[in-house]
Amino acid sequence: MDSDTRPTRARSRRARLLACATSAAALSWGLPAAAQDQGSLQNSTTTTPSAPQPAVPATANTTSAQQAGQPQDTATDPATTQGNSVDGGEIVVTGLRGSLQRNLDIKRTSSGVVDVISAEDIGKFPDSNVAASLQRLPGVSIQRSGSRGEPTGITVRGFGGDFNTTLYDGRRISTATGGRQIDFSTVGVDFIGQLAVLKTPDVSLTSSSIGATVNIQFPNAFDHPGFRLAASASGSLQDRADKVTPTAGLLLSNTFADDTIGVLADVIYTKRNTDTNRVYVSGWPGGLYAPCQLAGGPTTCAPTSNPEAPAYATPSNRQNLPGWFPQQYGAEQQRVEDERVDARISLQYHPTDDLMVTLDNNFSRQEITQNNYAFGVWFNQGDLRNVTLDENGTAVDFTQAGTPTDFTAALNTQILRTNQTGLNVKYDATENLTLEGDVAYAKSWLNPGDVIGSQNGNIGYGGDLSNTLRFTIDGDSKDSFPSISNFGPRGNAAGWADQSLIGSHVTVNQTQKNTDELLQFRGNATWKQDDLTIKAGGQYYEDTFKFRNQSTFTNNFWQAYAGYGAPSGRATGIAPLPADLYQGSISLNKFIPGFNGSLPPSVFMFDPVAYQNFLTGLGNPQAQNIPGFNYDGVSGFTGTFDEAVDPGSVLRVKEKTWSLYLSASFQTEVGGLPFSFTAGVRNEHTNLKATGQGRLPTSIVRSEADPTLLSIPTYTDIQPATSNSSYSYLLPSIDAKLELTDNLVLRFDASRTLTRPGLNLLNPVLNVGNGQRVGALSASGGNPNLRPYLADNFDFAAEWYYRRNSYLAVDFFIKNVSNFIVGGVTRQAINGLIDPTTGALASFAVTQQVNGPDATVRGVELAWQQVFGDSGFGFQANATFVDTNRPYDETDISQTGFAVTGLANSANFVGFYDKNGAQFRAAFNWRDKYLLQFGQNQNTGSFGAEPTFVNESFQIDLTASYDINRNFSVFAEALNVNNNQQSTHGRYSNQLLDVFDYGRRYTLGARYRF
Questions:
Q1: Which PANTHER family has this protein been placed in (predicted)?
Q2: Are 851 and 786 in contact (CB under 8 A)?
Q3: Which 8-state DSSP code applies to residue 718?
């Protein structure tokens, strides 16, 4: 029945319902904390015959029980598709082009702004990594793990990390990584059915993401009725590693008992080896130089900022010149092994068209093992001489007398295990009413059991063998790293790696242990009649996070054999070390191809576990005298490097969130043109309880074994601290879509969304760790009363679907964000402590956060997809341009500098060929420089938290496949064929922080589907 012949009563009823929904949305916007939801993907249909309703929705809680039981093999209307596969006389789109068309159909028919990536077939997703797929979408860019080169996170319209919510089949997932975001490298991609990125919210799903909501949908048996089998196997090789590593997956699915019961199970095993070269500066702290430190200054120099100090009487000794210096400089090779198992089982019961019951379990376990071999040199600002500062205040040339040299080896292990079980029931109570209930329980563990997260061995020379090292910068961080000269014992470069002079230094073991336990319920009702859809429901989340760090810093065992030994003139430390500990060396010649700069000749390879076993084998220093043991600085050590729990790191956060939502959608005509409108509102109430353990240091002492080290031998008694808080927000949304022609769609969307503060910021206590350095005292304080970020979001879009599988789109967006969390590093005295190196009140760099200013982010997304008829050729191209009214001000050296992070222009181009069973894709991904975060590895500066910028990046990936027959295909992949390198810098572009060279990766494999 069309709109001209419907009864007046039905039209009147819809008008009243629409008026109620729009009034609720308008009212909620007037409240102090409201937000809107972009429309539900499932509730939007189109009256234009050229845009068939997709069979696979982009949200999991949208379909009716009857729809959930329908096969999803053909996701578009066969009568209007075109492709290269013929089945039963109907021409159906398959392969890459079929996937792209399904994505467009979902995008077009959705009420909100959404982008989708669909599997080409069961067991065949377009990319080998979830984040790698997502970066092909407009407005989406990725962050990579420097050591692995793997995409681990995404940024959407400039908002990354915790600003994006990732769901499994519409459910939140637990993550024990320490934040709210997931690591996408932990998600097995082989058997994913669909990825949907909702850039405007769906109030029935979530409004807790200012960036976007990513919904990962997994297959079920009734998606593909009957027996289905998919298997894949491949081998992968990184060009610096010398070992091929396997990946294999198997999926089995079947429906039986007259298609009333369905079972699906799959398992994926993935292993990747990566050898990465890295040059690093741990941080560029800001501070004050004395004029005597500058090049051409007096030979006698005693920098001080204490007016009571005798040296202060000499003006050239007064620290009054702002500038930056490198805290620690070095190079290392990281050899990473990434091993992951993903598994899923899904049981479905579909006795009638009106009922669908789904019980599923998703499991993943990732173990990353990393062997690092490095050298490092440490600098203190007050010890620098002959300093040349550039126009920005960066120390580009200096010398430091007495510089020690350290060689390190580390065995790092991280295990992340997650298990989620869920039960979903859909019941079509009437022809118009669908009821749904969903319950899920998930738990995630970081480093469960007896895992030691990092075992470190640190050896080297110092004291009498230290040297007057020279450090110079001559270039930009995007193509140059610093140079050091006059290295080696007493400046003898030929003795750089003289094993007879090398002794033991510090020994660090530390492990972060986290758990995240998540219980969630959802219930909703959907009423559909004619062109009207009403949805109402509620959700409950109970999320419990537990954090704990244990290390040899806590009990000070890390300094047990510090000092470097007799060749360095020290009474502590063991030297020389047994020759059989050394396993060779790694050349630093041409270490980072394409980068200028000079390094020492090599780093040692040695086993840190064998090194620790050697020291343990010396015996119990409490039961016998062991020459070289640090008796004056370490107590309680009985021979083994046992970790101790840091009380200040213990944190338990429990969040309970209740949500109610209501939305109404209708479709009609305006001036004879199809018009869709959705209005919704979601109310969220959160109770938060954060519990920590507080203690304060009562003394600081300087290490007798190493004058660069400090210890805190005594603390006050541990006091538990608990903070309770709560907040409520009303989050409205509206979505409007007008079809000007059969092919041209206009959209307007407005919403309010929120993002909750990071969990690590909610600790109610101040934590002062034991592992301190001279001139680098630090502490961290939490704030459990932080409130969520709030954003008012607006989208104005036009989409032109000018032919099958082709479209042009432009989307202008604005986000007005309030409650930004800011703060950074401030200088504070703690408990009246005296710094033993200065005799003055100790000054700690304390990291704390508060809710602060507002900011506006604005931008435009451009997208173009073109398929050239039946030639098989086509391309996807998109570009995003973003801006803000709060850019970073590099001249601001206040303690509370602020800027919006993550903003960068980006562009992607994918050219492809897909015909006659052959497929080839070339993907080009570019992202401009952007501010990643406030904070560096060392946060000890006087000018607040120093920034970390990521330099411009451009990467090319190639993939190809060929169908041997209908069931069997082979594929190949070459990633990072242009050898893109990842580099970061500090406040200014010549302040290099990291450069990672992770090389290329090649994969060859085969798939079988039945």
A1: PLUG DOMAIN-CONTAINING PROTEIN, TONB-DEPENDENT RECEPTOR-LIKE BETA-BARREL DOMAIN-CONTAINING PROTEIN
A2: yes
A3: P
* pLDDT over 70 at 94, yes or no: no
pLDDT 10s digits, 427-446: 999 999 999 999 999 999 99
Tens digits of per-residue pLDDT, 887-931?
988 888 876 667 888 888 999 999 999 998 899 999 999 999 999
The model's pTM: 0.86
DSSP code per residue over 208-241 = --SS-EEEEE---GGGS-S-EEEEEEEEEEESSS
Chain centre distance of CA 834: 39
What lies within 8 Å, CB to CB, of 680 at 6+ separation is 21, 25, 36, 37, 39, 40, 202, 203, 204, 535, 661, 662, 663, 664, 732, 733, 734
Quick check: 209 and 164 in contact, CB under 8 A?
A: yes
Mean pLDDT of 376-390: 94
According to DSSP, residue 313 is labeled G
What is the rounded distance in angstroms from the CA atom of residue 766 to the CA atom of residue 719?
A: 11
CA–CA separation, 466 and 783 (whole Å): 43
Residue 126 pLDDT: 67
For 635, list phi and psi in degrees, rounded to 5.
-125, 150
- CB under 8 Å to 744, separation ≥6 — which residues? 798, 799, 800, 801
Q: How confident is the model at residue 83 (pLDDT cuts 50, 70, 90)?
A: very low
d(CA 975, CA 274): 13
Sorted by sequence, the CB contacts under 8 Å of residue 927 that are 6+ apart come out as: 141, 142, 904, 905, 906, 952, 953, 954
How far apart (Å, rounded) are the C-alpha atoms in residues 581 and 596?
33
Contact 538, 525 (CB under 8 A): no
- In DSSP terms, 39 is beta-bridged to none
Residue 85 CB burial class (10 angstroms; 0-12, 13-18, ≥19): middle
Domains of the chain: 96-285+325-376+391-571+574-580+596-622+624-813+838-1009 (2.40.170.20), 287-324 (no CATH)
pLDDT at 383 over 90: yes
**Spatial contact of 765 and 717, defined as CB atoms under 8 Å apart:** no
Question: pLDDT (tens digit, 9 = 90+) per residue, 168-207?
Answer: 999 999 988 877 888 887 787 777 888 889 999 999 988 8
CA angle at residue 922 from 918 to 923, to 5 degrees? 135
Question: What per-residue string of b and e applies to 472-505 under the rule 16 or more CB within 10 Å gives b?
Answer: bbebbbbebbbbbeebbbebeeeebbeeebbbbb
Query: Is the preceding peptide bond at 576 cis, omega within 30 degrees of 0?
Result: yes
Is residue 443 within 8 A of residue 174, CB to CB? The reply is: yes
Q: How many helices and strands, by DSSP H and E, does the chain display?
A: 5, 54
Predicted confidence band at 1010 (pLDDT cuts at 50, 70, 90)? Answer: confident
What is the reported pLDDT for 72? 61
What pairs with residue 815 in β-bridges? 793, 857
CA distance 362 to 341: 11
pLDDT digits (tens, 9 = 90+) for 261-317: 999 999 999 999 999 999 999 999 998 999 999 999 898 999 998 888 899 999 999
Number of C-beta neighbours around residue 650 at 10 A: 20
SS3 382: helix
How high is the mean pLDDT of the chain?
Answer: 86
**DSSP assignment of 16-64, as one string?**
HHHHHHHHHHHHHHTSSS----PPPGGG---S-TTSPPPSS-SSTT-S-
Radius of gyration, alpha carbons of the chain: 30
90 forms beta bridges with 87
Omega of the bond leading into 351 within 30 degrees of 0 (cis): no
